[in-house]
Design goal:
mainly beta, Jelly Rolls, 2 domains, 6-stranded antiparallel beta barrel, 4-stranded antiparallel β-sheet, globular, hydrolase, protease, Peptidase_S1_PA_chymotrypsin, Trypsin_dom
């Protein structure tokens, strides 16, 4: 692995593109355990997620054996090497290589970020983990954002699958849309094989906010158009 020094024309930012037009903010580099969810942002195939299968893994490439990597079931393809791995808002590492592709699936290995920081004496650029600002019409400071367009009567889920909260705490959600539409926001939690709504913000305007204290588990947001069509931005933060 290696790192690149940038000049004054570049400003490192504590964020990773999430493949949906938004970003995932980076608040630290706390390593997660085997079985934890992890996502990768790659130049070739974008945003893909999975779980950590093995820590301290070794892989044999054509150039030789590389040890002390982390093995995941996240897919990757040529051109994704060097992409960021994150778990929630915690940086985990950079993509090293793998086998398979994002059509049939496969395995990807990444180099732990903390080892890189330690060896080269670097500091990770992060954002403070303070509660986000949720003033009317504005959703800023969220570690995860998603931007899309909603048609009249349509309902969509964000993220497209779910997000995992490993600890109990407060979930913040903020929906910002154009004036003249009526979009509503719902937070759902998975209970076994079913989903139940645990928090609702369904006012008559375009902007909605949720603050919900709940247990660890799997969650997702549902964005619904009661009337009107247009773009929206959803920001959310897990405990």
């Amino acid at each position: 692995f290696a790192w690149v020094s940038v000049n004054d024309g570049w400003t490192p930012r504590p964020s990773v593109k999430n493949g949906s037009g938004g970003i995932v903010s980076v608040a630290g580099s706390r390593a997660v355990v085997e079985g934890a969810s992890v996502c990768r942002s790659g130049a070739a195939t974008g945003w893909h997620c999975g779980i950590i299968l093995q820590r301290d893994a070794s892989v044999v490439y054509l150039q030789g054996t590389v040890s002390e990597l982390i093995r995941t079931n996240v897919c990757a393809e040529p051109g994704d090497s060097g992409g960021s791995f994150v778990s929630g808002e915690q940086a985990q590492g950079v993509a090293s290589g793998g086998f398979g592709d994002c059509g049939a699936g496969g395995f990807t290995y990444f180099q732990p970020i903390n080892e890189i920081l330690t060896i080269y004496g670097l500091s990770l650029v992060t954002t403070a983990g303070n509660p986000p600002q949720m003033s009317t019409g504005t959703c800023t400071g969220f570690p995860v954002t998603a931007a899309a367009t909603l048609n009249g009567g349509q309902a969509v889920y964000q993220p497209k699958s779910l997000y995992q909260s490993a600890v109990a705490g407060v979930h913040y959600g903020c929906l910002d849309a154009d004036d003249g539409v009526d979009f509503d926001l719902y937070l759902e939690r998975r209970n076994g094989s079913a989903w139940s709504t645990v928090a609702t913000s369904n006012g008559s305007g375009a902007d909605e906010k949720i603050s919900y204290t709940g247990p660890a588990g799997s969650y997702r947001y549902r964005v619904v158009s009661s009337s009107g069509s247009g773009p929206y931005t959803l920001g959310y933060k897990a405990p």
